[in-house]
């Protein structure tokens, strides 16, 4: 096992030393320290065949692997983190999770990510082919906490924690088999705790896309409302509201925004048409309401857009 401690480095150089050690053992990334005083940190690492398991204990600081980092220094591994105490924040692929003590989270070194490292964590570096052999498209589970909802997940978390203390030569067949068993357990925990949840999310995304396509083809119907849309798709109004809430909006707010966008396009392309006709074509019954809503959305009156057309 290799051990690095910033206590052996002058205070002014401690964080720079830490940055270099972590980048060398994992992936190049940018780091930022919230405070510029002393940085007492310890890093220990050991190999289990083709896997690497490490423990990091350090004050709060942020790691960001940017698109530029990925381009300049491509890597092809997954990192699995286990939070030993406190909480931290991991973000990747538009998803962000607050990881609590005892929880596991996966992230992909081949894509940008951010990780707010605080206190004590375990990191397991897993070659991509080893992870995807067990869990195809493993990257879709990035930045999602698991390992705390079931006995399967809790067993995986415990195995990761206890693997830190394995007394086995890193290059032996036994070490490789132990690493394989560890990744088998982690993959099983992901499938058991997350696969169903993500399948539901994908199903709901397909349903939302279908609903949106229907709305866009019926913008001119002034009777279009949540009850009609929900009934057309065999779902409740509550379910319809939940689908749009996932995108931070409501069904009717989205419908009106699409009507305004369609009117804006029509005014830009067909300025010779009467403004009221365009408004009526896309579901507006009151010209004054249309003008007010249009200006609130675009900062210009409908007539201003029509006049801009060459």
UniProtKB/TrEMBL annotation:
Q: Which PROSITE patterns match?
A: HTH_ARAC_FAMILY_2
Q: Name one Pfam family in it.
A: HTH_18
Q: Which GO terms describe its molecular function?
A: DNA-binding transcription factor activity; sequence-specific DNA binding
The yes or no answer to whether the keyword Lyase is present is no
Q: Which keywords has UniProt assigned to this entry?
A: DNA-binding, Transcription, Transcription regulation
Top-level division of the source organism's lineage: Bacteria
Gene3D superfamilies, per the entry: Homeodomain-like (1.10.10.60)
Q: Which InterPro entries match?
A: AraC-bd_2, AraC_XylS_family_regulators, Homeodomain-like_sf, HTH_AraC, Tscrpt_reg_AraC-type_HTH
Q: Where is the HTH araC/xylS-type domain?
A: 209-308
Q: What is this protein called?
A: AraC family transcriptional regulator
- Tell me which species this is from: Panacagrimonas perspica
């Amino acid at each position: 096992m290799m051990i690095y401690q910033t206590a052996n480095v002058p205070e002014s150089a401690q964080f720079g030393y830490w940055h270099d050690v972590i980048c060398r053992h994992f992936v190049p990334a940018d780091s930022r320290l919230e405070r510029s005083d002393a940085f007492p940190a310890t890093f220990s690492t050991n190999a289990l065949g083709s896997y690497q398991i490490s423990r990091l204990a350090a004050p709060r600081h942020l790691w960001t692997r940017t698109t530029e980092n990925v381009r300049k220094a491509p890597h092809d591994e997954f990192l699995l983190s286990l939070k030993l105490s406190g909480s931290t924040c991991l973000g990747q692929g538009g998803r962000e999770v607050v990881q609590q003590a005892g929880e596991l989270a996966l992230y992909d070194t081949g894509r940008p990510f951010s990780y707010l490292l605080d206190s004590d964590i375990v990191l397991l570096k897993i070659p991509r082919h080893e992870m995807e052999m067990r869990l195809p498209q493993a990257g879709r589970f990035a930045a999602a906490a698991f390992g705390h909802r079931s006995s399967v997940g809790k067993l995986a978390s415990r195995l990761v924690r206890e693997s830190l203390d394995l007394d086995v030569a890193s290059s032996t067949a036994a070490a490789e088999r132990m690493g394989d068993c560890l990744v088998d357990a982690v993959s099983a925990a992901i499938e058991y705790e997350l696969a169903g949840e993500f399948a539901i999310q994908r199903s709901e995304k397909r349903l939302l896309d279908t609903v949106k396509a229907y709305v866009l083809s019926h913008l001119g119907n002034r009777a279009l409302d949540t009850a009609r849309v929900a009934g057309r798709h065999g779902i409740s109004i509550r379910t319809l509201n939940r689908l749009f809430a996932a995108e931070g909006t409501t069904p009717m707010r989205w419908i009106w925004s699409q009507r305004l966008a369609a009117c804006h396009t029509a005014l830009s392309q067909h300025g010779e048409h009467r403004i009221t006709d365009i408004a009526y074509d896309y579901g507006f019954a009151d010209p004054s309401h249309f003008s007010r809503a249009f200006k609130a959305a675009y900062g210009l009156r409908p007539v201003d857009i029509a006049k801009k057309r060459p």
